[in-house]
Amino acid sequence: MNAPAQQHSEQIVRFSFSQRLEHIVTIFTFTGLCLTGLPQKFYAKGWAQWMVEHLGGIDQTRWIHRAIGILFVTATVVHLVNGLNALLSRRSAFTMLLNKKDFEDCVLQLRYYLGLTDEHPRYDRFDYKQKWEYWSLFLGNIIMGLSGLMLFFPTVFAKVLPGQLIPAAKVAHSNEGLMAFFVIAVWHIYNAHLQPDVFPFDTSIFTGKISRERMLHEHPLELARIEGRSADDDHGHHADASRKVG
């Protein structure tokens, strides 16, 4: 195998085992919360009543929802602790932090889609869309977790907080859950699996591996850092690739 062909077939480990495990746990808990939560929100609909009946009735549906919710909150806390530990021990950089380049990349990509430039944004480990999705869902997890605990233990929270917060928590929990469902069903599924670059399925978050060719196309700055070279070394190659894509 010649050198260019070997580079194209080369696989790079991008996600650790713990990161892949966190993602799998999130998939199952989020799906479980949707399956047990949405029928409670739309309880008057026929499909919701059918689901509640097959889950064993409304009481059992609520207990299943609460049990999965506790697991979901625990997974969020574990993710936060692991992230802080990695940052404090300097094992990882804060790659999810939004910065000036993300806004510049967003404008540049809009200009690229509108045909105003041939230059495509060159991303690091995560692009601005992935960061937006991460932070919106992370903050959503906090809202869902806190409001869920308030609904689970209303009398406990009402002793230390104004009682009006309990019905407010119900509204926040219900609407945030529905919004999270649409973000995952539309935004995440399209960007992670249905967009042309990865269609029909991006396996990297499950195998942990991604081809060097995809890294060069999607995350050239991260690839350059991994290989210990200047980010400008492959700029000409990337520009050629962008023109081919366009």
Automatic annotation (TrEMBL):
It holds the Pfam family Ni_hydr_CYTB. Residues 14-192 form the Cytochrome b561 bacterial/Ni-hydrogenase domain. The chain crosses the membrane at residues 21-43, 63-88, 134-157, 177-194. InterPro entries: Cyt_b561_bac/Ni-Hgenase, Di-haem_cyt_TM, Hydrogenase_cytochrome. The keyword Transmembrane helix applies. It is a multi-pass membrane protein. Gene3D superfamilies: Transmembrane di-heme cytochromes, Chain C (1.20.950.20). It is found in: Cell membrane. Keywords: Cell membrane, Membrane, Transmembrane, Transmembrane helix. Its main location: membrane. This is Cytochrome b561 bacterial/Ni-hydrogenase domain-containing protein. It comes from Anaeromyxobacter paludicola. The lineage of its organism: Bacteria, Pseudomonadati, Myxococcota, Myxococcia, Myxococcales.
